[in-house]
What does this fold into?
Amino acid sequence: MRHEKARYYFNKSGKWVDCYTVVYKGIKLTPFITTYPYATMSEHPTDPQGVWQHGTQQTLPIDNFGKHYADYKHLGHRTAFANLPQDVRTALEQEATA
It folds into this structure.
């Protein structure tokens, strides 16, 4: 996945280990089906104690970007790629080049 067109969220509530969420641009599977990939991760996603998981959702991205924002507040606040921790940025860059 390329990170340039993704949206990034940080949930600083302390309730979640996977406090960083990346929502990628949708991928059209058929003329009628689009899937929306996402990833959630901890501050050190490649550490043995870290968390890094991927998923997809059909119909709408998990942040439902632009609509019903209140339903997706659990993702936290939107942030820029440059504001992510170094380990998160490195993991995403390595994944994008794999």
